[in-house]
Q: What sequence folds into this?
C-alpha cells in the first residue's frame, strides 16, 4: 500500500492517534518527531522515517525503511545516542547521511530540545523544593470518626470508674462485690495508695513478738521455786493430820499424769474453833 493511500485513509477517515483541538490537530503516536498531525510528520504514512525517543534518560535513534515493512517485529532499527551533544550529532549525521535534509534537520531539533529538558530535570532534582502531599478526604474522615469513638469510650470508662468508686464508698456490694475485675483492681489500688500516703508519717508503738509467753513462763518458774502450787497443773492426793488447838493443814502429795476420782475433803477451823468442811471434787 502506498504512502498516499495510507495518509488519505488517516486524514479523511479515523486515526486512533489523532487529537483535535481548537489550536490544531496533534498526534499521540510515540514515534512522531514533531507531535503534529501532517503528511511529513506522520510515522504511519511514511515508509522511510526516523525519530529520537527517550528510555529512562537514555536517547535512542529509531529508523524505519521500506525494505523492512514486511517484517513488523523488525520494522524499527534502534541506535543508542551518546550523552555528549556533539557526539550525538555525529552519530545522527553518520546514520542519516543520505536521508532528506528536512527530516534530518527536524531530528536534530528534537535532539536539542530533549537535551535541554534533560539538563533542566537534573537542575530541579538538585534544588530543594517543597513537596506537596495529597491527603485523601475519606481517610481523614475515618481517622476523625475513630478519634471521636475513642473519646466517647474514654468518657464512658471514667464515668463507670467514678460510679463504682461511689458504690464502694457506700458499701453497696457488701463483702463480696460482683463487679468487673479490672476496674475493681484499679479502684482498690488507688484507694490503697491514697491510704498509704495519708498514713505515711504516722508513728506506731508495737509490742515485741513472744514477750507475753516469756513473761508467763517466768511467773510459773517463780511459783515453783517459792513453793506455790497451782491446782490446774497438778492433781493432789490429800493426807489429813489433825492437831488439837490448831488448824488442820492438809499436806498434799502430787500425782502427775494420772486422774484421781477420789473426793478431796478439807477441814478448816475458824478463830473461834468452829470447824467447817469443804468438799472438792
A:
Amino acid at each position: 500500500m502506498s504512502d498516499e493511500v495510507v495518509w488519505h485513509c488517516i486524514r479523511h477517515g479515523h486515526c486512533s492517534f489523532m487529537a483535535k483541538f481548537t489550536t490544531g490537530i496533534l498526534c499521540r503516536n510515540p514515534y512522531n518527531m514533531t507531535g503534529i498531525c501532517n503528511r511529513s510528520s506522520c510515522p504511519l504514512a511514511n515508509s522511510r522515517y526516523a525519530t529520537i525517543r527517550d528510555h529512562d534518560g537514555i536517547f535512542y535513534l529509531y529508523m524505519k525503511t521500506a525494505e523492512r515493512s514486511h517484517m513488523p517485529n523488525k520494522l524499527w532499527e534502534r541506535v543508542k545516542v551518546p550523552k555528549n551533544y556533539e557526539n550525538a550529532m555525529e552519530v545522527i549525521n553518520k546514520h542519516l547521511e543520505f536521508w532528506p535534509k528536512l527530516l534530518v534537520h527536524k531530528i536534530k531539533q528534537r535532539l536539542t530540545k530533549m537535551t535541554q529538558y534533560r539538563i533542566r530535570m537534573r537542575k530541579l532534582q538538585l534544588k530543594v523544593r517543597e513537596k506537596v502531599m495529597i491527603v485523601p478526604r475519606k481517610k481523614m474522615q475515618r481517622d476523625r470518626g475513630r478519634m471521636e469513638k475513642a473519646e466517647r469510650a474514654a468518657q464512658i470508662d471514667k464515668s463507670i470508674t467514678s460510679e463504682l468508686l461511689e458504690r464502694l464508698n457506700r458499701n453497696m456490694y457488701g463483702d463480696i462485690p460482683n463487679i468487673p475485675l479490672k476496674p475493681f483492681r484499679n479502684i482498690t489500688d488507688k484507694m490503697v495508695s491514697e491510704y498509704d500516703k495519708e498514713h505515711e508519717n504516722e508513728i506506731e508503738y508495737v509490742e515485741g513478738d513472744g514477750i507475753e509467753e516469756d513473761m508467763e513462763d517466768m511467773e510459773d518458774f517463780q511459783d515453783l521455786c517459792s513453793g506455790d502450787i497451782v491446782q490446774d497443773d497438778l492433781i493432789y492426793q490429800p493426807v489429813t493430820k489433825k492437831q488439837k488447838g490448831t488448824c488442820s493443814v492438809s499436806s498434799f502429795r502430787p500425782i502427775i499424769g494420772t486422774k484421781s476420782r477420789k473426793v478431796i475433803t478439807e477441814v478448816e477451823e475458824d478463830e473461834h474453833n468452829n470447824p467447817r468442811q469443804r468438799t472438792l471434787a
In short: The chain is about 40% helix and 15% strand. Confidence is low (pLDDT under 50) at residues 229-242, 244-257.
